[in-house]
Amino acid sequence: VSTPTYFVIASLLYEIARSTKQDPVNYSKQLFGDKHPRHRAALQLAVDKSGYGKKKLADGRAWGVAVHESFESVVAYVVEASVKDGQPVLHRVTSGVHCNLAVNPRSVEAQVQGAAVMGLSTCLPGSAITLKDGVVQQGNFGDFTVARITQVPEFDIHIVPSADAPKGMGEPGLPPLAPAFANAVAQLTGKPLRQLPFELA
Q1: What is the mean pLDDT of residues 144-173?
Q2: pTM of structure
């Protein structure tokens, strides 16, 4: 439920930020207020490590941002994306993760990478779930577009230090990927993306 629901919510929120000429990071922090310190910490870590707002991106690239909590863990993404030959391209993903105590940081990193690749897959052409005569046509991954190695971005994953009781780290890396990517593409095209997979036409 988190993945499709948050795509809709985050896409709308960042569309509001763009239309009111607000920076998406500052806009997110305003929405968090003082009630969501873990969200703020994860987002700030991703921002700091990515160079957002400080580093000059290559021509034709834009930043995208999203942060979401699921299974009591928070994952923030700052991504770099472009549009090439009419198709969105994800180049780099910097993540801030707040899962409280990370018992095995390498496992957290692997979970976020895997979830992000699955999230990327939902954005790509050929990943739509279709019906024929009331039956889903896709039976397995052979019938569904999964990101290939040439489409997978660079990853830079960081964990907010914490000694609090650990939380879940399976799915939380998936929901914020698509809206962060969509946010970047919309910055480039000026048009919001309102469905998965992305349609730029």
Answers
A1: 95
A2: 0.94
